[in-house]
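Input record (one chain):
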Amino acid sequence: MAKALHDVSIAEAGAMLRSGSVTSMALTEHALDRIRSVDPLISSFITVTKESALADAAAADAAFAKGIDKGPMQGIPHALKDIYGTAGIRTTCHSKLLLDNIPKEDSVVAAKFKAQGAVMLGKLATHEFALGGPSFDLPFPPARNPWNPDCIPGGSSSGSGAAVAAGLVRMAMGSDTGGSIRGPAGYCGTIGLKPTYGLVSRRGVFPLSYTLDHCGPLSWTVEDSAIAMEVIAGFDPLDPASADVAVPDFRGKLGKGVQGLRLGLPRGWFVNADGASAETLKAIDDAAQTLAKLGATIEEIELPDYELYNACGRVIMFSEAYAIHEKDFQTRPQDYGLYTYLRMTMGAFVSATDLTQAMRLRRELAQAVNAKLKGCDALITASTLAPAPAFSEADPNSPPNFPIQTMPFDVTGNPAMSIPTGFSASGLPLSMQIVGRAFDEPTVLGIGAAFEAATKLPERRPSFAVAKAA
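The corresponding structure, as predicted from the sequence alone:
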């Protein structure tokens, strides 16, 4: 039975485009139709760029007709979290403060996709300034989880996770400062890759934390994240954090399996963590057994207390966020959503001593992870600690703190990928993380692809028939 177009991966769609069995226009029109029918249930898009998307699709088809092939994203529809600058297209950060913000230039990531002939369908919902949410006091509604729209999709790349899971796009760009790619990926059942710090330029992306921000893809398959990374990775001399290193071969270890790999499991981090569900813990243990059956050696390891990583990252994130927003925070505080305002306030009270100690601790914590990775090819650990919570579980007067364990690898900068491990009894996705050495995304992706092939989890999609948006 032939797949529906929205179930065709980037790799599969690329082969079809090059064989002439489908056009970019057909892919784009199908995606726009699906956005019209499905997105009212999940509110993943803030802006749909229909006219420019159709024009981009026509240009991609014309290029193919002339024998011009710019790369694997040519003709492929995608979308961007609405903190990525896009020339002539509003970039709101899901905030009242930037409702009329229309950048004059593309972010580096947007420009790279455009140069390869990719088709941008629009801009996706986020937590306000990638910090405050999920909120109902912002100019746009919060994105909802496609597996059950009464539940959150995670954040802050909420629209990206929801849009990919719902089959509106095969890949969407997110950003990750404390888990904002991997949290939505975990709750929505997608792949979410936070690359090594400095591997993808952040220029033109509205910052949350100068020293913690990462840009990366959410996708339906591991290979699709690898393809996106081929387009967006690379040194940018105008991004002070950009790493001048050789770009890895992201698809180089796909299909190679895990035979002989040594994988560290810091089980002490999550086995007794507050909020960890029995289903999540069992799914991670089962995933470890699956990888062992595929030929990997699983070794339980110890790392410094998880809460040290969490506290370190939060001190840095909140203090840098406040520094970025200080002027608006002092002159337009009423224009922020409540959750953003409360979180930003914490940054105003971080002392120079606190920040200095956090930066010192950060180096020690990174050394601890990297020391373990000298004896292991990668680590596997928890991502989200439980299925997606319902919106009704959030306190409207206090920012929610749903249980995820993603902050450590923003602190250390190591590549980390959230990948589905199965489903809860309620039908919501469960997940784990695969973590690698710096700039060793190929190993992370290779492990993920082997696990994905063994479990066939991408074959199951949300049906949208079980729940309705409130």
